Amino acid sequence: MNWEVRIMRSGISCFNATLFRKNLGRFWPLWGMASFIGVLFPLTLVLQILRQPQYVVTKLDVTGGYYSIAGQVAPVLCLIYAVLCAMAVWSYLYSARSVGMMHSLPIRREGIFLTNFLSGLAMMLIPFAVTGAACVAVSLAVGAFDAGSLAVTVLLVLGNCLFYFASATFAAFLTGNLLALPAIYFLLHFLEVLLDYLVSSIATGFFVGVEDVYAGVLECLSPTVYLLRNVGVNYIREDVVITPAAGDPYTSRELVDVVLENGRLVGFYALAGVVLLILAYLLYRRRGSERAGDVMAAGWLRPVFQCVVTALAALGGGVILYELIWRGLQYGTFYEAVPMAVCLSVGGLIGYYAAAMLLKKTLRVFRGSWKGAIVVVVCCGALCAGLHADVLGVTTRVPALGEVAQLELRLAENTYILYAGEDDGLLEEALALHQAVTADVGRIRELYENDYDYEGMGAETVHTLQLEYTLKNGLTLHRWYSIPLTRERMEEPGTCEYLMDQLVNSEAMKARRLHMGDSRYAVEGGYCSGEYSESEDLGSREAEAILTAVGQDLAEGAWGEYDWFGDRDGLEYAIYLELSFRRTDRDAGMDWITINVRPEMTHTVDCLLRLGLVTEEDLVQRIQLYPESYPETVWEALPASAGVIGGADTMTSVMVMG
Amino acid sequence: MIEIRDLVKRFDGFAALSGATLTVPAGSVYGLVGPNGAGKSTLIRHLTGIFRQDAGTVRIGGEDVWENPGLKARVADIPDDWYYFSQASVRDMMRFYRGFYPNFSMERYETLKDVFRIEEKRPIRRLSKGMQKQAAFWLALCCMPEYLVLDEPVDGLDPVMRRQVWSLVLGDVAQRGTTVLVSSHNLRELEDVCDHVGIMDHGKVLLERSLAQLQDNMVKLQVVFPDGVTEVPADLPVLHASKIGRIHTLIMRMGAKEAEELLAAYQPLLVDAVPLTLEEIFIYELGGADYAVRDIVL
Fold this sequence. Notes:
By secondary structure, chain A is an alpha+beta fold. Chain A has helices spanning 2-12, 17-26, 28-51, 59-89, 96-104, 109-141, 147-174, 180-206, 223-230, 264-286, 301-329, 337-360, 370-389, 424-439, 441-449, 487-490, 496-504, 507-514, 540-555, 602-611, 622-625, 632-636, and strands spanning 232-242, 250-261, 404-411, 414-419, 461-471, 476-485, 521-530, 536-538, 575-583, 590-595, 642-646, 651-656.
């Protein structure tokens, strides 16, 4: 009777202490080594304090250290360490002998699952616990212990460990092969980045205007990248007046607070970890012990695996083959559809057969597989044909005004951020410009294909237009164009050049550059240096005065007209003037502008002289200082009062005569 | 009692078991024989809860085996390739099994220490194959199972240890009523220990009988026919016939008495019934099932 009771307890139990202890005992080198490495960090801190006893560790220093580790180091450590722990505790799944032994034991699958999961999680946490305990001991020793930040850090570490080990567990149940586990794990963690890169590079090769940039549309699917880019530590510093015992008070910028930004994201990933854990358990329930050794542990995963490998091999291998072989033979800016289709097909077929070999565990996979191979080739051909014909309208895609939440426009050496609801008029003009550019995309393609030989196309210069839309649905759209400019087209209404000029040289855009009358921005400071004066950082009052002066020049038409063709290059004074602005109504960072000071900007010049930022000596035009850098057409625009001092052959310096 | 009904198991379309049916009476020693690939090990893995069947039922003592830890605590098995943790000693594995099997007997563990004479703290991987097998028996018997499932259990054991092991197993059968299912190629050995035999081939149990039934159902006769009869008469239902000199050796699927009555019609000069070995029964039964006998020469 006694043993019957004990059996019943075993039957309902979801945890087996013997298995838990066995796992920790078997794999102690793993968590032991990790703990040892972890302890080295507080040890280093101790040695540093001993070496520099004058170095005072504050609570904020400790908090910053905790948050940096929890936010920036823990995701990377967990990413690597979790898969090692998973390979240890789930290793029994990958051998027929060991899986047979484990599954013949008198314990339910959920009991094995939960016990092994908790063992692995314990192996994840032990090194953090040991390291954390050592850090706490050090902070207590130096009197800088902070319980609040420690609690937050513990939660973040728990969240990271839970998520990463759960994701490794999920990967472990997708496969029946120990070596496939890390491959699948890392592929799942970075698939979004990989696909983003591949799609972006292929799109760049087919479509005019598409930027080869990491879009990160679904970046949250790459947790490590997402956490590293979004969870951070904000060190808040303020000017503090310090009054020493002897001497005058002085102002020092001191650390006043340390804030962890977006730490809640770790909590969301921990919840995702719970979901992955449930999925892993469901996979375990359906998993056959006979799958030990198979690359994919479930029958329905096999075609998925083969499709994913084929697609990645086609895209990645195809691009590499194209770059190596076709571009080696015949350079071109854009991809040619037929050679690219051949390269994608070759890459795809390699992936298709490699996946088949892995799934069937034999090299003899060719017989009877011709149908699948044809499907791969047809898909690659169709993809290239579709890209070549731009069936999705990528090249001509211009979002509607109602779709746009924000547009970051880089044009004419300036960056403008336009917000829907606040700048609708300017947004409409920018969208019309984008529409005109897409309508004239043939000229831009011709420029790229002619290796930027704009003169061969009859253009005088090239300007870059960059548009970064943030849409209301959260997606982003990046476009980048190099536009060849001619004076004739710039005066021809309806052309993209005309619209560009109308937009940039509109009074609204000129004022926008200075944020005049715009309560959303406040001028904060800047920088000024003359050819013969010391460079100065500007305070907010000085910057305000300069901004008012530039505004007066703007009102009189002496500033703001953008010089597309560089007709007035060199006529500005050799003064570097920059103003910086702060967004007042939202945390949208900084904006700044570089102002070319020209002789006709009398208000600005007077202001600079009055503030003592420059002297009369600095009022020398660049063309006078560096005449060899400017063409004769610019010299013709120079007033007759300017002269040159120097030898007969080479001009060495310039003196202002009047 | 162990009961398997219409058990089906497919691996990627290949049917390893295609409707196997088997019954092991409680307290019996059941020998499961069959050629390589017949499905013996697959069937055993269903009995130990490792595999889940595609169809059919697998029951022990009236309970389904799958995910039944209460039942599995009363079942011990020794697979053909026993698994142990790579660094583990017998003592480590004992502690491990003790944590799972509530009936695990330390008293028996200590007693069997003298039987197996294995250095219990030595890593199992450093033991010979035969000693590893002994270790597996040692631990399995300490689980005090009501059901013992053995897959090729005595491979690698020397004759003395084989006898010793069987003596322990049969002792459990006699004293505790343990039900034993053992798969083996070694028919001569099964003949000595089994009271029931099942023959498997192509994923099915072709027949299962008690040993007495098997031996009663088939007869080997040495016959000398009168002058003029040089061949075995065509109307005799003979499974196999051979001839040395004038003596014909006939294998017939019937009892000895019935066979002698049939032969009496031919007035033989000599009729002598000779006992059939299990090996011969196995060969002729499977031969009857169109089996390539040469492949299972033992």
